[in-house]
Write the structure tokens for this entry.
Amino acid sequence: MRPTPVTDGPVTIPPAETPGLRGLLSLAVAVVVVSALYFARDVLIPITLAVLLSFLVAPIAAFLRRWHCGRVGSVMLAMALPLVVLLGLGAIIGTQVTALVREVPAERAIIVQKIDMIRHATIGNFNSFVKQAGKELQHAAAPKVEHHSADRAPPPERVSVVPPPISPTAVAKGIIGPMLDPLAIMFIVFTVGSFILLYREDLRDRMIRLFGSTDLHRTTTALDDAAERLSRYFLTKFLINAGFGVLVGLGLFAIGVPGAILWGVLTALARFVPYIGSFIAAVPPLLLAAAVDPDWTMAIWTLVLFIGGETLVGQVVEPMVYGRTTGLSPISVVVAAIFWGWLWGPVGLLLSTPLTLCFVVLGRHVERLEFLDVLLGDRPALTPVETFYQRALAGDPDEALDQAEILLRDRSLCGYYDSVVLPALRLAAGDAARGALYPGQLGRITDTVAELIDGLDDQVDSDKPVRAAPAGTDAGAAPAEPVPAPPLVLPPRAQLAPVWQGETPVMCIAGRGPLDREGCAIMAQLLARHGIGTRIVPHEAAARTHIASLDTDGIALIFLCCLDIAAAPSSVRYLVRRLRRASPDVPIAVGFWTTKADYERYGDFQAAIGASLYPTSLRDAVDQILAQAIATAQVAPVEVRSADHEPEAEEHVFKLGLPLQPGAA
């Protein structure tokens, strides 16, 4: 039976705190910033585009500068490259649109036939049904009225609207007017971007002076991190999208869709919109393929091309190229696209990912903005210990087991218990001691740990401890590198001392804490993986009133498990004394699962306790218990011959740590 935890009284829930002045001020600042971004978008959009363009071409400018092109020359050449690309794309789009306008009328008969087919199959049938139903209802409900020719109104007169003549000035205004705004924005973007590249170092110094002149290391790291992430993101995204556009263009050309180059260029541009850009770009060529083809083969192949290409690029190429360099979580990318699209329209939709990336970098390096990294970044919000503790509090053993399976890919079972489970149990024990757990939560924790141990019952503890080289070397020499210790493997049970040959040679006694029994269960599972059985005894069985009836026959070692070192010294000291009187020849180990610094904090703690062993971790405890068992092994010396010796016997004796004795019979 597990001990029932006893609390000092009912758990009190503190009242909700009212927002303080600091919280209201932060909210006001956020509202002002969002309002400024919205109302000043006509000014901020060109400046933002210029800054991001400078990040994109900065590696090119640096490369040209290394080739002795000079500061001004490298910047001008680097800025001319995207301008040439934009002009080339504009020329390609214009040429393709002109060719498409000439090609589509030739397929007019097929297009009209397809449209009529679709209309008759869908809207036509629906309209016929509605008209027929309307006539029947009108015929049934309308009263019979006699019409007289004298009452009829005269037919209306036709009125024709004659448009005024269009002057050449109006034609020029209609053509040039819509182009002025994009050209002005492009001029501002390239001008500001050029000046940013020319005076990049000066701007960086001013930003450092403005935001963190007292902490140059952190501010410099933040700026370098942002520049590196944005440059890598833009360059990689541009190359991937260009490759995807080429793939789509070649595929549509092979399929026979008119304007294949146009759709490839538009697909490459639309793919800058997160997640849905390529599917939006697929709609025009898909409709065109369905219209110009007499059957549906071209449309089907077009759909397969877009779906297959997006799956290949999005699920294989991008994860391999990006890895975790962007630092954004998937949900943050979607939310950012919605937010910036609402704030700045289509331009904000295209810039949503790089802008959000800038905020994440700020959150990682500015303490007041850390919430941005937590909300938008891809780093785990909780540590593995906190995650396990939360799953245990919620009573969710399945999620805890999933987390364990992920962490066990790169660590041993003992290492997982040492680094995740035991620290979480110590947190839970501390919360239970100060009454911070709600009713029922402690039971959820114990049940979760029990199911976790049962779910990991088939795991193998394959990790080997790593110890430093033995002492005794020259003090002036360089310290030796840590070397792996030879594996501790128990010999056959018949070769152990009689006291270690039983089914349960180790007795594990739980401390007074509410979760010490779970620590005993973990210890028992780990020892079982190494061939040593364990009998778990509750703390009440070793109390003063029951110590006389405690059965220690066949016990080779007594292990005490206590999660809280601060609340245990006195009780453990008296418990060790009682066990010494009951079994004076049995070694006693006390595991507090803490560091040696904690032991030193309590002064002569180990001497006051009076135990034989003081392991500081589960790995240390398993090693010490295995060493105790191996030290009692009685192995006959093995003869080692020069030619026909038995390698298996030699290896077995080496694992026991015993010297080989050549020539023994």
In short: Confidence is low (pLDDT under 50) at residues 1-13, 464-484, 636-665.
